[in-house]
Design brief:
globular; TIM Barrel; 9 helices; alpha/beta
């Protein structure tokens, strides 16, 4: 279970001390990655240098409305600073306006920026399901896949809702087995995490990762 969790801290009030604690917990429990804001990537990389835990940075977070060039630069800078995984937010308004070419270009620019600096880098595309219709969720997933992303992700955790079993199932059905699905947003218990995995998620984003693992240990 721990190997499926991105241990996450994206609060605007997070301090260096909080990030160090996050990294120590990630090493202790063997989480897949820590997910942090770009400013804290160098610190997280330093703290995790003696472990297999990856550093994940968010890009265009949490609104997704930054320009394509700025998202690509942010992703490139994060990778050069030590991130090996990037969770980017799509341009939600453009998707709803059916500007699919723009959405695709946005995703592809981040993917290209990441791979140019780390060929093994991993891009996850946050589609922010709480704002989308079923048709828009499907279209967003297909655009992410076409743009070269290796994962689609439900939520930022800053929208009006988080991950649901129904959305995870729909996303898995849409992308098949070739693209990963990350469920994030509001996952606080072992029962919720297991439900997401059963629905097709192969990565869980959670700030409650420690509580989830402890619940499993003592169940």
């Amino acid at each position: 279970m721990a190997g499926l969790i991105d241990h996450t801290l994206l609060k605007p009030v997070a301090t260096s001390e909080d990030i160090i604690k996050l990294c120590n917990e990630a090493k202790k429990f063997g989480f897949a990655a820590v997910c942090v804001n770009p400013f804290y990537v160098p610190l997280a990389k330093e703290q995790l240098s003696d472990s297999a835990v990856a550093v994940c940075a968010v890009v265009g977070f949490p609104l997704g409305a930054a320009s394509i060039k700025s998202k690509a630069f942010e992703a490139s800078n994060a990778v050069l600073s030590g991130a090996s995984e990037i969770d980017m937010v799509i341009n939600i308004g453009a998707l709803k306006e059916r500007l699919d070419d723009l959405v695709l270009a946005d995703i592809a620019a981040v993917v290209e920026a990441v791979y140019a600096n780390n060929h093994d880098g991993l891009v996850k595309v946050i589609i922010e399901t709480c704002f989308l219709t079923e048709e828009e969720k499907i279209r967003a997933c297909l655009l992410a896949e076409k743009g070269g992303a290796r994962f689609v992700k439900t939520s930022t955790g800053f929208g009006t809702g988080g991950a649901t079993v129904e959305d995870v199932s729909l996303m898995r059905k849409t992308v098949g087995k070739q693209v990963g699905v990350k469920a994030s947003g509001g996952i606080k218990t072992l029962q919720q995490a297991l439900a997401m995995i059963k629905a097709g998620a192969n990565r869980i984003g959670a700030s409650a990762g420690v509580d989830i693992i402890k619940e499993m240990i003592f169940m």
